[in-house]
Amino acid sequence: MEPPNKHTTSNDEPAMSHSLPELSALPEPVLIHILSFMDPKEAVQTCILSKQWRNLWTLTPSLNFEFKRVGVRRTTAAFVHFVANMLYFRGASKLDTFRLRWHAGSQHQVSCYSDVICEIHVSNASSWIFSALRCKPRVISLDFLGFTNLKLPHALFTCTSLEQLELKLSNRYNEETIGPKYVNLPNLKKLKLSVLTLKDPVMQEILWGCPLLEELSLSECILKFNKMKSGCLRHLTIKSCPGYGVAEIFMPSLISVHLEDSCPGRNKLSLKNTPSLVKVFISYEYFHEHFFSSTEVEFFNSLTTVTDLELYDTGVKALLEKIIPNCPVLDNLKRLTFGKWLINEKLDLLCQLLQHTPNLEKLTVVHKKPTNPGRIEKKRATGQIPFKCKQLKAIEIKYSDPSGVHELVDILVRNTSHREKSVRIDFSRF
Hints:
It comes from Rhynchospora pubera. Pfam families: F-box (PF00646), LRR_At5g56370 (PF24758). Helices cover 26% and strands 23% of the residues. The chain is built from eleven helices and 19 strands. Strands 1-2-3-4-5-7-10-12-14-15-16-17-18-19 form a 14-stranded parallel beta sheet. A three-stranded parallel beta sheet has the order 9-11-13. The protein has a two-stranded parallel sheet with strand order 6-8. α4 (73-90) runs parallel beside α5. It is elongated and about 75 Å long. The chain starts with 20 loop residues before the first helix and ends with a strand. 30% of the residues are buried.
């Protein structure tokens, strides 16, 4: 008679289960919560620990599937098989979060291996989304790459349990990728769309169909709409999105706007009804005079309600040169952050802007390392643009290199009025 296997116990359960008595003694909800932090494959493997663990993995509230190997058909088949089986055996158990990241090809690939295989992948992805929707998830995040003909199921846009939706389809030249005829997401609060083409009727249908939407983020999308209307949206972010016309914003509840791009002039936004707007972030990395239009000037002139303003990078420097001559008085502005370029070379821009911020309380200057000290000296001799900020209490200077910081402080101090001489000046290095 053969001796019992050293890896098993008398009741044929793995010895591993007896090595974790404290863990197994925890309440089932706690064990399920622990499983939710594990990779799906690892979570499924816990079924061999004991009878208690056999079906716990089917109750995990979060599923996070990720596949990004390119060109390995056998590995792709294994991924498809695993996801399909896990969703099947899991059934309709309550699901909080469903994340699927499937990179089946490169961004420049025409199709996934072949048109036939690509169609199969699209069919699999759609069926998985349907399976997840049956479980009434609160959060869905989809990230696809290499699917040139992917169309999202309409059921995704009528899921009443959704509170957060993220879509990154890496296919912004296919206008049919996202085109719901009807949107009904009554509980959606956060929406993030990336690498898509958004046309006028689609964008407005989304905003109308999300009555509780508070946060909207658009990243690397092609914008083909001319209006954005929402009575509930509070935070709007647009990053690297080329536009094909001026988009007018009618959002009375909007609190913050974040604009970030490699080139200015591509986000053509016009604020028409934003009385609640208090925080604005603008960053343009590069610039050229022909990028600017009257839209950018009008946008800046609409910031009279703003209390927090952040202006970064060299593109903003060029924009300010065009705006400042007709800049309105920003009576409500309390905090201004300015820089990420060589401030000393264009310090007059800052001083001129401060002439339009009489109630400013804190000024933060982000300073880059100077490359031409002689140029700084010249500005010290000619840059006399006094400003009066009677409420100014603190100036913070952030720098990557201390060179030129003393010159910057000297010019700021010399241009302030007597009342601001007592402001606190702090320094921090980044």
